[in-house]
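By convention, each integer encodes one residue's backbone shape. The lines below illustrate.
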Amino acid sequence: MADETSTATVSSGTPAEAQSSERAKRKQRMGEVISNKMAKTIIVRVERRFPHRRYKKVVTGYKKLYAHDEKSEAKVGDTVRIEETRPLSKTKRWRLVQVVEASTGVTPVAV
């Protein structure tokens, strides 16, 4: 009986190694920069269109997301692509991937 257990082989692959190579894609969103007054942080308004549950009319919903902008390259009015990341602060969970389209002639709100 001892011989039977000694001949059994155990797989050497660990589940943690398999998970790290097959990690899920991170969420990406496109939106418009509505504020860049903070240091290395932008606020992006993301638009979402969906049918109303009862009336089936297409409704537009908006969400304000705080994103990390390391080089402060995004300006108010720019269309940007942001990506989900680990929590960077109390409200900041996104980071700037690229400025898709620079704004043309949009003036920021007067202070």
Summary: Strands lie at 28-38, 41-51, 58-68, 79-84, 92-101. DSSP finds two helices and five strands in the chain.
